[in-house]
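Journal club prep — side note

Before the paper discussion, L.F. wants everyone to see what a predicted structure for a comparable chain looks like in token form. Sequence:
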Amino acid sequence: MAKKFISWDIHSSDIHLVPLSKESLRKIFNELSNQSLQQIAKNIGGFVTKELVFLSLNEMNFDNLMKAILLSDSRFGTVKHKIVDTKHIICIHHGICINFSKFLLHTHLALANDLSLSLKITNITYEMICMEIGETKLKEENVVI
């Protein structure tokens, strides 16, 4: 837990993050249309994640990218992570709303597309999203909303 707060203190001002309550996020995201949600996510993409790589790890490679994704995702709630073969399995339990799950899907998709990573969504609900991320780009057949 201390690692999470230390990381937040170190990087939040560098990349201009502000804390918001889950209730505030719920109210904001429940008002967004699917089109607005997708456009915002596409514009943001992996911006925060890529900045974390360069601010704290100094080199863009897959291992550092995965560390930054996990650190970035931990801002939203509990993150479970395991590695199976070459795939990283990530579940983010945020407890906010389905639109927030969709937002996370689209930000991760934008990052995956930008960096030619594979992304497969394995579960999406109003309170969580689970995905597999791999180093090699696959067909986007597994991204369904």
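L.F.'s comment for the group: The two ends are 33 Å apart (CA to CA). Keep this in mind when we get to the figures.
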